[in-house]
Amino acid sequence: MDSHGVVARRRRPGLTVLRILLVLLLCLAVVAGTVGVLWQQGMLSVAGRCMSSSTVTVVASPAVEPALNQAVAKWNATRPTVDGACLTARTVVQESGQAAAAVGPGWDPARDGDKPDVWVPDASVWLSVAGSRPEAAALLSSEGTSIATSPAVLALRKPMAGALGWPQKQLGRQDVIGALSQPDVWAKAGHPEYANARVGLTDPATSTAGLASVLSILDPTGTGELGEQQLIAGLQVSRVVGGFAPDASVFFAAQTTAAAVDPNSVVAAFPALEKEVAEFNAANPGGEMAPVYDPQQTFVADFPFVPITADWVSERDRAAIAEIREYLTGAEARAILARHYLRAPDGSVADTAVLPSDGGYPAAPPPARAAITPERLSQVMAAWADLQRKVNLLVVLDTSGSMTEPVPGTQLNRLALLQQTAGTGFNLLPHTMSIGLWEFSGRGTEPHRELVPFGPYPAMAGAVPRAQALTESVAKLRAEGDTPLYDTVYDAFKTMQKQWEAGSTNSVVIITDGANEVANGLTLAQLTEKLGKEQIKEKPVQVVTIAVGPDADAESLEKVAAAAGGRNLVLREPGSAIETLVLAFTGRLQ
Question: FRET label pair with 185: which of 70, 113, 273, 326, CA 20 to 30 Å apart?
């Protein structure tokens, strides 16, 4: 009992200890929960070691991946962190064209490889390719930061470049194409052994150098103008093509084979990136290639560093991406990239030991061409695909008396104009083409006459090569008689139905300056009905009609062409339509 008379209760030691243990357990639970949260958020480290990490995947093109991989390894070695989490990066190699086709919310790792957090294609043009798809454009909100550059060039065997005056003379792509299309150029230069050399093309859908080559041919000034002159330039290139490959590595490898020792072996020039030429030359002393630049505007691979804004990229990944980008634009990373034959983002040569000026690498390349919009790029690529398609063509020329009428603004009559443009066009025909030549007028018992039988362009036409037969036949044409137009159109249509070939455009081109003048032959109504009914849906033959001069019956020709699924062109002033007529003789009218 205490002093107040109250009986004191004895405290039980066990209960006090129990309370203490409960408090300790509660505290441990709180601490454990906090540790778990910090662990999950990557904010806890022990003795400087991170308890979590974040790895960023960089999908890069083969041209830059080796250099980028080395630079990323250097960055990883600095043990970067963000909010206590360890950061690392790794590179995955993938062709730019393949990545451009795959990028989007539907990226399938099983089909497309690891999902990218960052994409480094060869050039920003691949952003336009991918951006033509809205679902991909949504993931490419950034234009990217260039980490290096490499101009697109035409790789040409050094002895051939020397025969054309290089390196004292600056060569352009057209200089090389022109020389390859004219064997006598090599004879005049004292090297007739190069007469059979050809150019190789790489796939513009997957190869950056191939895409650059197409843009250089069809849009050389970067203005977006795609006219008949550009199409003719494309035909000039197609005529000297000696092979196709997915990328330049195939052609580079061919230069080291025994066949390459023979100067007449087929592919002696092909599109590539400057850094690929420099790499090849370093590995093959004595068998080097000369880099040929476009003298006015050069396509430049700018290797943009493009963060992907997809739902699989976390906030921590984005922080890591910002750190990596900062490192790659710094001095240490640029020195690594330079040692891999790459220029600085501004186009300057950062390492003259690997890109020496006396090796043909200018200190500053020609001005880079402007960026191209997705819409414009689609137009150029569609035109290129059209130029590459195989064509089976029957050319039918009006040689009636009206073809002796003069062409205003020239010293030629209509027939002479056709002879001139036909000769130019026939000299642009690719070796994959098949062609035949007719004339029509009412001076004989038949409405038309076969001048050159239909067949492959490289093959013989009787006793002479078909190219020679075409040129000589056109030169011998004379104009007289009336115009049996409708009967000739029908016979030509039926002939080409027999020559129809899958995978080709099968066409008849009728060039005339008048109207049908045969009273006892087919009428317009009969012809259009026959063309419509006898067209085979699975094997279509187009009839393209060209109305030349003010006297041509353009209205009737329009109906004839429409009945056979073709088109009609009206050249009221043929003297100003030389290029159109040249394209007509190649079957490449747009």
Answer: 273
Q: Any residues with CB less than 8 A from the CB of 196 and at least 6 apart, and which?
A: 183, 264, 266
Asked if 213 contacts 244 with a C-beta cutoff of 8 angstroms, the reply is: no
The larger pLDDT score, comparing residue 358 to residue 25, is at 358
What span, in angstroms and rounded, lies between the C-alpha atoms of 497 and 538? 11
Q: What is the pLDDT of residue 262?
A: 53
* Tens-place pLDDT, residues 11-54: 444 545 445 444 444 444 444 444 443 334 333 444 456 767 88
Query: How far is the C-alpha of 216 from the C-alpha of 191, rounded, in Å?
Result: 28
Q: Which residue has the tokens 């408090």?
A: 23
Tokens of 186: 């090599």
Q: What is the pTM of this model?
A: 0.80
Do the Cβ atoms of 269 and 180 come closer than 8 Å? Answer: yes
Of 307, 303, 275, 302, the C-alpha closest to 58 is 307
On whether the CB atoms of residues 213 and 271 are closer than 8 A, the answer is: yes
Across 385-406, average pLDDT: 92
- pLDDT confidence of residue 22: 46
Measuring CA to CA, which residue among 363, 303, 289, 355 is closest to residue 333? Answer: 303
Whole-angstrom Cα distance, residue 525 to residue 556?
10
Across all residues in the chain, what is the average pLDDT?
87
Distance between CA atoms of residues 575 and 408, nearest Å: 7
Q: Give the span between the Cα atoms of 425 and 545, in whole angstroms.
A: 17
* Residue 281 one-letter amino acid: N
Which parts of 473-541 are beta strand (E)? 504-512
Give the percent of the chain with pLDDT over 70: 90
Tokens describing residue 424: 């130019």
pLDDT value, residue 16: 55
Predicted confidence at residue 558, as pLDDT, reads 96
Q: How many CB atoms lie within 10 A of CB 475?
A: 10
Q: Report CA-CA distances (Å) from 106 to 101, 119, 261, 313.
A: 11, 16, 48, 14
Residue 207, class by beta-carbon neighbours within 10 Å (0-12 exposed, 13-18 middle, 19+ buried)?
Answer: buried
Angle between helices 524-534 and 554-563 (to 10 degrees): 20
* Apex 542 CA angle, 541 and 546, nearest 5: 145
Q: How far apart (Å, rounded) are the C-alpha atoms in residues 537 and 543?
A: 14
Q: Which of 124, 161, 172, 175 is nearest to 296 (CA)?
A: 172
Question: What's the rounded Cα separation, in Å, for the pair 553 and 10?
Answer: 127
pLDDT in tens, 484-505: 999 999 999 999 999 999 999 9
Burial of 413 (0-12, 13-18, 19+ CB in 10 A): middle
DSSP H/E element including 390: strand 390-398
Task: List the 304-307 sheet strands across, edge first.
Answer: 81-82, 85-93, 53-60, 118-120, 304-307, 145-146
Residue 423 predicted with pLDDT over 60: yes
8 A C-beta contact, residue 227 and residue 588: no
What SS3 state is found at 363?
A: coil
DSSP secondary structure string for all residues of 199-264: EEEE-TTT-HHHHHHHHHHHSTTSS----HHHHHHHHHHHHTEEEEESSHHHHHHHTTSGGGGSTT
